[in-house]
């Protein structure tokens, strides 16, 4: 089984406008598909650094003198690049979300298809919070907020109340036990969609995905060279909204202040239009169906 079939591979790497002797970062290494494509376009003097906190992904490291894999969360991008003496880069690629491997490996607990312990940690060394803790220890309001904000579920409060009631009788230990508890909220016609939203909400909370994405994005303007590029693939509206808003106005909420002439100063500007997978790519890789690619460069870049 392939570790991960990279989505929008050519388009996302094209978006970086690769220079053969440039320095590039793949912050979501996974199976290494995007990294290998970047390396194929680099010359001998080029350099690629990749980030991945998942031990499984780290086993896919590439044996190439131009390549360095950093086993950390991309929210710490500047800190770890500084360790390698890197202050500016020519391009950063992020393929957000969960890899095919993480979904397909039953014991990781990411998928609604398998009965597994409630885990969902991308970094299994992180200790602390797992899906089990979220489901079995969060107060009703905390749990409701997670399901509403991260799972985008309108009936989050009722779902949280049902989970609290069930766990009072016995802890909810596995994905199938959680599905059983929530049967009344999951009509057959919408089973996959609703369960996916519930699992998404819990997973985002466990891995602090929204906080990590925000911390990552705000570091990009200081990292990019004048003509450097940011290429980001997102898979759900929460991520895409954050990426879109940050590229547009350098903020995640509200609007930037205008100067006395009515102008605003923002760090990035978009390059081209939103890119989505072709019908053919979606046909051959179903997980591409919700992907959105946005490309940006520094607002000060004239090209």
Can you give keywords for this protein?
7-stranded mixed sheet, 303 residues, alpha/beta, 14% strand
Low-confidence regions? 99-104, 106-110
The order of strands across the largest sheet is 3-2-1-4-5-7-6
**Whole-angstrom Rg:** 20 Å
Average pLDDT over all residues: 89
Task: Please indicate the percent range of residues in DSSP E strands (runs of 2 or more).
Answer: 5-15%
Spatial shape: globular
- Number of strand segments: 7
Structural commentary:
By secondary structure, the chain is an alpha/beta fold. The protein has 13 helices and seven strands. It has helices at 9-14, 33-41, 55-58, 77-83, 100-104, 131-137, 140-149, 156-169, 175-181, 191-207, 209-223, 237-249, 279-284; strands at residues 23-26, 47-51, 67-70, 89-95, 224-234, 268-270, 292-298. A seven-stranded mixed sheet has the order 3-2-1-4-5-7-6, sandwiched between helices. Helix 7 (140-149) crosses helix 8 (156-169), helix 7 (140-149) crosses helix 10 (191-207) and helix 11 (209-223) packs parallel to helix 12. The longest helix has 17 residues, at 191-207. The model is unreliable at 99-104 and 106-110 (pLDDT under 50).
